[in-house]
Amino acid sequence: DEEWPEAEKAEKLARGAALKWASGVFYRPEKLEGLGQYRSREMQRNSSIQSRLKSTVQSYLEGVSAGLEQLRSAAQEVQSACQDLGAARWALLDSADRFQGLQQMQALMVEHVQLASVVQVLPQLFSVQEVFSHTLQLLHGQHLLEAHAELMMMEHLRDDILSQLDLRGLSSAQTTVLSYFGGLQELNESLAKQLWDIVGNSLRLVREDPVLFVTAVRIIEREEKIDDTLLLEATFLPPGRPKSWKQKFYQVLRETIIGAHFHATGVDAEGHGLAKHLATLQKDIVSELRVVKDLMVQCVPAHYNILSICTITYHQALTSHLQDILQEDLDKQALFLLLEWALHVYHSPDMMGHPDLLPEVDVSALGPLMSPELVDQTERKYVVKVKASMLEWLQRTLEVEFKEWFREEEPETDHQGFFQSALPVIVMQMLSENIRVASLITNSLQQKVYTMALEELEAFLGRLREALVQAGKEHQKDRTVPKYYVSYLLAMLNNNLALSSSVSSLHPDIACREVPMSLRAALDRMQKKTCQLLLEELLLDLQPLCLQLPSHKWLLGSQLVSSMCEVINKYTKDFSRVRKPLFTLLLTESELLVASQYLRALMQKKMVCKNKEERVQLCDRLLQDATQLRELFCGLGLDGSQQSLEAVFALRELICLKDPAMLSLEVLGFITKYPDISDEHISTLLDLRGDVSKEVRHMVLEMMAQHPQVLPESYRPIFSTILVPAPELPFCLRKGKCA
């Protein structure tokens, strides 16, 4: 029970089930009558079950007994086999030396089999040398198709033998076979050499003897088909395969084209040499593409795309060749030719757009011959070269112009009698021609040259102004040198006006003709400097006369202003040799100079009116002088309202005022009209009157302080350029040595 608790549990369940069944069956009294029958039936049943169990167990026991017997027998047989194996092992160890002899016998057998295989093909191998010799003779006689046929036959024989040996696992015999076919490599190389020589001369041959070229192409096609077949099968690849002769054909063709035209070293950096080189390239390329299009295309299969290949080769080689040329230090003519050729000639009907090449040849899809970056870089190089050339020419022009200023002759005149020189014509022709030439290439180059030309013109004006200053210094040392100093200054004014009016027309495009402010300023500075030198010359002749006033001699009457008018007339006569706007400018500036010099002379404190009579005389003299000068300039064409001499009339009113107490009001009106006048100027004028008390002076100056003036934008300063002498000290020591 302890070992089989499930059996006890099963027995209890069976008893319980039997009791339950019996109580259910025999619960009623009438069922008890069949109890004996039930008992006998159950006893028979139990007896049958027990007999079957005994029979089953007996059967199992018999099987186990048979199995054990078999196991015992097998163990005995295994032990016997082990003993036999041990004996065999010792026997094998004893006969190891004999097995080495068997291995040698096996190797001999393999070699015998290989030799037997080789012996089978010996008749064919012995005939190889004879075929080699015949094939070489065919090659030397340029019977290429027959030679190639025999070459293919020998290669096929070699490949067939090697393939069979490879399938039989006789790889060691392949070396022996290959030794018979060693001449195949030489034949291949000899044939290939002739083929590539033919391809290298293909452009000539298709015109003279296309048969050779067609033969070469047929041989290449044969080899290409053999390569394709072997590569597709991919079972056995013979030695020397794939040959790739079609790719070699393209390579040789490209190398021939490049070597014939684009390997020239040391291309002339000057325009003439480069022009000749580019013209040769243009002629040769068009001629050769015609040959390819009309003749070579018919000698090769369509899938070779021979015309397209040649066109691309020429295009790419030209691109590289132009880049190599640009590495040289080219002059401006060479750079221009290169840009023109690459951007215009190359695509023109004279070259790649030639009617004989269209429509088959189309380089538009191949991209530009020069990249935009390279074009821009080349344009900048060209501008630098043009700038250097332009600078040299402008400097030479300036030197010639400077020498002309010192000639013993007046400058030349135009049909209207205005002074001029050839300078503006030379300069503008030089600038406009360079801009026009640049416009033949690209708009960007035109704009670059235009901008550079304006910059160089601006720099030239600066150097021209410095040359004028240098000539002015020479003239100050000796006023007779140059002899016609004023005339040449007037010619320079006309020249400057001509440059100013012409510079806007330099650019062909009206929308791009805006003149930079810096150039306008340079032209303006040139004009001002020339006017300044002319006015300085006028001033040198006026100063001796101005030094004589004011004085008592002048006050009593003299020809001083008449002499000034003569000087002015002399200069205005010269000024008439400039064009009207310049004449008006010089006349206006001359009038301002005369007025300021006249006022400056009055401000030098040389004279003080002693009494009323002298003030009356001073007022009369001022009126006469100012009137005479005003009438002179009015007669010359300068309107009185534009004259600065009105300041002399206004100053006269201050001096003529009889009641000094009214000076404050008079001065207020004066400073309102001439706001650039200072306290020192007013104080000097009050001193000139000679009757102004300290109180009145103080009141006038205080009134001026209370009414500060602002200069209007259109106001022309008069008094601000006049310096008043410093007042003398009220007390001073006698001149002498210190104690």
TrEMBL record:
- What family does this chain come from, according to its entry? Belongs to the SEC6 family.
Q: What does this protein do?
A: As part of the exocyst, may play a role in regulated exocytosis of insulin granules.
Fetch the PANTHER family from UniProt: EXOCYST COMPLEX COMPONENT 3-LIKE PROTEIN, EXOCYST COMPLEX COMPONENT SEC6-RELATED
Where is the organism placed in the taxonomic lineage, from the top? Eukaryota, Metazoa, Chordata, Craniata, Vertebrata
A cellular component term from Gene Ontology for this protein is: exocyst
Recorded superkingdom: Eukaryota
Molecular-function GO terms, alphabetical = SNARE binding
InterPro entries documented for this protein: EXOC3/Sec6, EXOC3/Sec6_C
Name the record gives this protein: Exocyst complex component 3-like protein
Assembly notes:
Interacts with EXOC2, EXOC4 and EXOC5; may be part of the exocyst.
**GO BP annotation list:** exocyst localization; exocytosis
Matching entries from Gene3D superfamilies are given as: 1.10.357.50, Exocyst complex component Sec6, C-terminal domain
Per UniProt, subcellular location reads as: Cytoplasmic vesicle, Secretory vesicle
For this UniProt record, the keywords arranged alphabetically read as follows: Cytoplasmic vesicle, Exocytosis
